[in-house]
């Protein structure tokens, strides 16, 4: 047995571990840089030390997770999911905001640390989806068969949206879509599932919405859906189109502003558009090679908001330039590729769905967070895995990594 | 096919990789666009974010008098400004600063108005901080973002009230001034010359403001100075030398008791150089630097003595008997007067003209007199007849030709022109009645529709002293544009009887109207005047000239004392000024006992006056 093989059977995919550790160390460095300011901000300055502690704890969690058999994870899915829902419900009652996200109830205060239950609920949901869909023996034929997974996701997602945390809710959607995909859901069915969301978005232009509805009916006819299925999809789309306006009106002003500003940041350059504009200026002024580690002026002079958490990638862009951003994107690409590769090689349905669910979650985090810093995604306030400062998310990510590596290790032993 | 068969998994993994590459590729392209294609735009924006240009005021040129003494210079002062920012932030800062700087609510309002007009410029809040205020603000730096204090030169006038009206003052440029073409390129908050010399020579004195760049954070707090290569150095203003004799100016100011109002102007005949120009009551121009405190302004503005009025250039009064020289000059020029001959009507205390009896100031009369004695005694009856010989129409035409309704042309921003009818029609236009020939009797003795400033009278007498011509009065030396030559149009020998006349006026113990103003060392001559005043006691005039014995006059002095009643009162002020100037010029020790009257008062024998 070669060294790599021995490592593989004990710790799973060595490349994945190395890539994630590299990202995490780089993340600590970026959190340190985020605290290097000309305008002292005690809330950011020393946090890189705490991030090292979090990283240590997370690696511990990783090692612990490696010792747990996959079947035990499958068994624990139901209690973990139930616990996750309870925690989310509790969070809605005793939760509190933090930093610029003061208005939301996403954190539970546990004395020395603030815990974000939604990160752990997400992992439990992935396990639950794996458990349910892992039992499938044939691809789903109708929307009805998707009802179970959809409900499993909708309940925690609804609780998260009540916090309200739109970003995490988007990640739940990504988890649902990716696990359904891995469980062999046909594309057409998947489209029917998400079509009401499309209808919701298009309903703001009546001409566009009408054309879309015609197209939808044609699609349903060609796809030869069940009559009740087609009828309910059309009905759901019409309903989405109808509730769009009241739903819009029910949004908090800051949420509306964020969405409008996403379309055009210049409508409110000092208010809601400030973050996007300053982040783009930071990234754009970084140029090809960047301004140098810790030397980003936008960051130093406090033009960047949340530079150690949600906007940490803007610091990367400002200080390391295009080469740095592309480098980090490639590392993330490699990490996700390793995940897809493990999922591909694992014959066990539960394990494959769980790994690919984690793939979906991380991919969504990367695209939504990094896309937000450069202005091609709305600002939703979700962290960047392994780079953003924050203990709960790092711990949850390392737990997920441990799970993936355990699966890879068991595969290696076969 | 089995749902989780290897082939199915491979197909899904390949699909996932396609989505992965597409997703990350889109992000990569977005970063390529922002960081490579639009890098220069964002680099500029990032600089604009953090760098703010701040003006560095240029030091104003120093102003010297003719002997190199400092009339105006700069001392270091502290100015407080606010960086540009949103309206609410600026207002909040001003309200936070108010208790530290003692800003009244109106001042905050006017500062906000100024912010509205140029929101992109730093807002200068105060240019005159005390050291205590500076340290109070430095202590609170953290809660006062966008506030910065810099050292900038502050104007100082060492002679204070003695030169107030002449020098003017500097202050913050106001809105009206900003809209004037002469202040093009000036920005709000800048200091400019507001009056007097400071205003007249603003372009020369001001220099050009420089700029430096400071780095600010997202809350506009200054973090530090930016690279020095970005500094544009200010260009200091040019120095200015005046013809003024600051010592003489101070001497004149001291010669005025506090309760006396009036003005003294001293001019060098031949050149028109202004040696002194003083108006009383005065004020301290140093109070005006960096903004007049409202209470000071209110007090000065509402004072019935009008301390802000420059009586030397902007106070106009009927010239009274000092004008008799001009009447005589007109007559001599027209050839209607023989200076040695008696006129037909002797002075018996007055003369009948038409249905009215015109009195001489001397009830007892002067009898038959020639021109020099008529000047010596200031005989009204003599000059009534001279006026009648000239005739009203010719009198007005000649007076207008002499420029009696014009300004002296002195290099000061504001000057009140003389008031003199340009013809009989003037009376109809102004007052709606047709003047009779008898009007010329009033005009001939310097009363009636004729008002002149002390500076104008000094200019006229400078022409008498300078062979009939004099350039326009000049305060500043150098290329400030030589004054235009102004002429009496008299042959020099025609001046002789006039000069002889005013010599007899001040002859010690000679019985002239100002014999007590005679000076020990100098040839001193001049003419008294009494300016009828409807509002109280008459104003006293004296215009004289002095020089070494037997030589040409070197100084012409005009003095006006409001409510002084008799011309000899004014003669004392004029004589003292001339004496002080000449003593210093010719190396004679100065003394406070100067005129013959001083000698009598001091009980000091004046053998020279016997």
What report would you give on this structure?
- The complex is a heterodimer of chains A (414) and B (610).
- A two-stranded antiparallel sheet of chain A has the order 1-2.
- Chain A is built from 17 helices and two strands.
- Helices cover 73% and strands 1% of the residues of chain A.
- Chain A is mainly alpha-helical.
- By secondary structure, chain B is an alpha+beta fold.
- In chain B, 37% of the residues lie in helices and 18% in strands.
- Chain B is built from 22 helices and 19 strands.
- In chain B, strands 2, 3, 4, 5 and 10 form a five-stranded mixed sheet that branches. In chain B, strands 12-11-19-18-17 form a five-stranded antiparallel sheet, sandwiched between helices. Chain B has a three-stranded antiparallel sheet with strand order 1-8-9.
- In chain B, α3 packs antiparallel against α4, α10 runs antiparallel to α21 and α14 packs parallel to α20.
- Chain B is elongated and about 150 Å long.
- The chains are: A mainly alpha (414), B alpha+beta (610).
């Amino acid at each position: 047995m070669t060294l790599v093989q021995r490592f593989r059977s004990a710790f799973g995919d060595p490349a994945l571990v190395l890539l994630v550790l590299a990202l995490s160390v780089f993340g600590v460095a970026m959190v340190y840089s985020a605290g290097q300011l000309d305008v002292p901000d005690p809330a950011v300055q020393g946090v890189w030390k705490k991030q090292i502690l979090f990283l240590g704890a997370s690696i511990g969690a990783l090692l612990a997770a490696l010792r747990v058999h996959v079947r035990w994870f499958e068994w624990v899915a139901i209690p973990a999911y139930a616990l996750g829902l309870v925690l989310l419900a509790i969070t809605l009652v005793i939760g509190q905001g933090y930093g610029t996200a003061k208005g939301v109830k996403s954190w539970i205060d546990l004395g020395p640390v603030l815990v974000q239950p939604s990160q752990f609920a997400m992992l439990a949901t992935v396990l639950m989806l794996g458990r349910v869909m892992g039992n499938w023996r044939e691809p789903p034929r109708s929307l009805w068969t998707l009802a179970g997974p959809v409900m499993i996701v909708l309940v925690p997602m609804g609780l998260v949206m009540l916090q309200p945390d739109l970003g995490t809710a988007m990640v739940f959607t990504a988890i649902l879509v990716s696990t359904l995909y891995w469980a062999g859901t046909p594309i057409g069915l998947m489209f029917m599932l998400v079509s009401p969301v499309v209808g919701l978005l298009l309903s703001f232009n009546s001409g566009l919405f009408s054309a879309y509805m015609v197209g939808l009916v044609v699609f349903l006819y060609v796809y030869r859906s069940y009559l009740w299925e087609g009828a309910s999809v059309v009905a759901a789309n019409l309903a989405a189109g109808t509730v769009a306006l009241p739903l819009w009106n029910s949004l908090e002003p800051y949420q509306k502003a964020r969405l409008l500003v996403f379309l055009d940041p210049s409508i409110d350059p000092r208010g809601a558009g400030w973050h996007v504009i300053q982040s783009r200026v930071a990234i754009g002024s970084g140029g090809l090679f960047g301004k140098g580690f810790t030397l980003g002026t936008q960051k130093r002079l406090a033009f960047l908001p949340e530079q150690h958490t949600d906007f940490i990638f803007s610091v990367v862009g400002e200080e390391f330039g295009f080469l740095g951003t592309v480098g980090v994107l490639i590392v993330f690409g490699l990490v996700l590729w390793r995940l897809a590769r493990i999922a591909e090689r694992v014959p066990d349905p539960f394990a494959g769905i769980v790994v690919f669910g984690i793939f979906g979650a991380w991919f969504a985090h990367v695209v939504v967070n990094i896309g937000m810093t450069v202005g091609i995604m709305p600002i939703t306030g979700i962290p960047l895995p392994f780079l953003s400062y924050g203990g709960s998310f790092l711990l949850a990510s390392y737990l997920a990594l441990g799970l993936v590596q355990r699966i890879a290790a068991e595969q290696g032993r076969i | 096919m089995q749902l989780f068969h290897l082939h199915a998994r491979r197909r899904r993994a390949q699909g996932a990789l396609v989505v992965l590459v597409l997703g990350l590729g889109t992000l990569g392209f977005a970063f390529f666009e922002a960081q490579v294609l639009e890098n220069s735009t964002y680099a500029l924006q990032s600089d604009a974010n953090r760098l703010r240009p701040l003006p560095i005021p240029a030091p104003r040129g120093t102003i010297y008098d003719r002997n190199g003494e400092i009339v105006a210079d700069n001392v270091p002062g502290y100015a407080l400004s606010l960086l540009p920012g949103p309206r609410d932030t600026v207002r909040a800062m001003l309200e936070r600063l108010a208790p530290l700087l003692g800003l009244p609510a109106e001042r905050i309002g006017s500062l906000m108005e100024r912010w509205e007009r140029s929101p992109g410029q730093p807002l200068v809040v105060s240019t005159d901080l005390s050291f205590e205020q500076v340290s109070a603000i430095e202590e609170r730096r953290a809660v006062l973002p966008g506030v910065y204090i810099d050292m900038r030169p502050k104007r100082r006038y060492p002679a204070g009230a003695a030169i107030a009206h002449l020098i003017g003052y500097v202050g913050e440029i106001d809105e009206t001034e900003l809209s004037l073409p002469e202040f093009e390129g000036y920005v709000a908050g800048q200091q400019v010359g507001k009056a007097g010399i400071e205003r007249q020579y603003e372009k020369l004195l001001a220099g050009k403001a420089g700029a430096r760049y400071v780095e600010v954070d997202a809350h506009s707090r200054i973090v530090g100075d930016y690279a020095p290569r970005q500094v544009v150095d200010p260009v200091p203003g040019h120095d200015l030398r005046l013809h003024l004799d600051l010592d003489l100016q101070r001497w004149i100011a001291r010669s005025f008791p506090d309760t006396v109002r009036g003005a003294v102007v001293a001019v060098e005949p031949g050149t028109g150089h202004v040696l002194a120009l003083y108006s009383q009551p005065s004020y301290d121009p140093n109070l005006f630097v960096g903004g007049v405190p409202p209470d000071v302004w209110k007090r000065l503005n509402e004072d019935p003595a009008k301390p802000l009025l420059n009586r030397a250039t902007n106070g106009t009064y009927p010239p009274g008997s000092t004008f008799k020289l001009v009447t005589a000059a007109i007559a001599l020029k027209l050839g209607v007067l023989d200076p040695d001959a008696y006129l037909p009507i002797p002075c018996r205390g007055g003369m009948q003209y038409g249905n009215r009896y015109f009195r001489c100031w001397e009830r007892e009369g002067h009898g038959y007199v020639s021109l020099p004695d008529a000047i010596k005694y200031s005989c009204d009856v003599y000059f009534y007849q001279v006026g009648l010989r000239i005739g009203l129409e010719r009198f007005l035409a000649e007076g207008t030709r002499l420029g009696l309704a014009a300004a002296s042309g002195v290099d000061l921003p504001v000057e009140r022109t003389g008031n003199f009818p340009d013809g009989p029609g003037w009376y109809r236009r102004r007052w709606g009645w047709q003047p009779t020939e008898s009007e010329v009797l009033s005009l001939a003795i310097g009363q009636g529709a004729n008002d002149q400033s002390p500076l104008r009278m000094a200019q006229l007498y400078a022409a008498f002293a300078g062979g009939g011509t004099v350039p326009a009065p000049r305060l500043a030396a150098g290329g400030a544009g030589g004054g235009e030559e102004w002429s009496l149009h008299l042959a020099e020998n025609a001046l002789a009887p006039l000069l002889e006349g005013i010599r007899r006026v001040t002859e010690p113990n000679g019985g002239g109207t100002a014999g007590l103003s005679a000076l020990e060392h100098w040839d001193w001559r001049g003419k008294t005047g009494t300016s009828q005043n409807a509002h109280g006691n008459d104003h006293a005039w004296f215009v004289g000239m002095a020089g070494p014995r037997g030589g040409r006059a070197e100084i012409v002095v005009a003095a006006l004392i409001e409510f002084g009643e008799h011309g000899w009162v004014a003669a004392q002020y004029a004589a003292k000024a001339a004496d002080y100037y000449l003593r210093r010029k010719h190396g004679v020790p100065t003394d406070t006992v100067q005129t013959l009257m001083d000698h009598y008062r001091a009980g000091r024998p004046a053998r020279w006056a016997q």
